[in-house]
Amino acid sequence: MSSVNGETEKLKEIKPLTLDGTAYVHRWSQGNQHEFTPQGQEDLNVWTDMVTINIFPDVVDGEQLAQIANNVLGRYETIGAIVRTNSIPRTEKSEAEHLIVAILRGDGVIEAVYARVKMIQGKGTATVWSRREYGEADAAAAIGTWLQENGVAREKVFIAWDGHPQLSDFDY
User: Which domains does the chain possess?
Assistant: First the structure.
């Protein structure tokens, strides 16, 4: 069960995923977007750490995947600041992979996000690992400090992570 805006909904059973030693539990899905938070962060109105998996079932090649990455980059540029981008070149075994690190602003929140756009099991995906802080001025300082202390290490962990769930676990 999950609570969004005070409403509780029953979720399809999707196994927790583990990232950097933390188990993230499936909390919410709509369409091809699926959100996971750690234990103790069940309320999606006040989370601190989240993994969001977006599946693009019609994206089946590297060119289409690059377009998804460009769309994510463009959206992030309108709501925040890009910290860094990186692409891992295509190999004989896999399409290119794209990373976007950004600081995003919302109403009373600031997030550090790491978006990894890659092919998984033959489909395009954008997996976003987010850290959120609340408040106006305090949130900016807190995210800045958090990025200085954790940013490089988090990126390395995220790029090396191969614990993505099976896409067949999701309804898409």
Answer: 2-167 (3.40.1000)
Are the C-beta atoms of 13 and 1 separated by less than 8 Å? no
Beta strands in 17-122 (DSSP E): 17-19, 22-30, 33-38, 49-56, 80-88, 97-106, 109-120
The tens-digit pLDDT sequence of the chain (172 residues) is 444 444 444 456 888 999 999 999 999 999 999 999 999 999 999 999 999 999 999 999 999 999 999 999 999 999 999 999 999 999 998 999 999 999 999 989 999 999 999 999 999 999 999 999 999 778 999 999 999 999 999 999 999 999 988 888 887 6
The secondary element (H helix, E strand) that includes residue 131 is strand 123-134
Query: What is the distance between the terminal CA atoms of the chain, rounded to a whole angstrom?
Result: 20
Q: Which of 45, 38, 43, 32 is nearest to 16 (CA)?
A: 38
* Cα–Cα dist 132/139, whole Å: 8
CA–CA distance from 2 to each of 25, 36, 41, 55, 158 (Å)? 10, 10, 10, 21, 26
In whole angstroms, what is the distance from residue 141 CA to residue 86 CA?
25
Q: Any residues with CB less than 8 A from the CB of 113 and at least 6 apart, and which? A: 76, 100, 101, 102, 103, 104, 128, 129, 130, 131
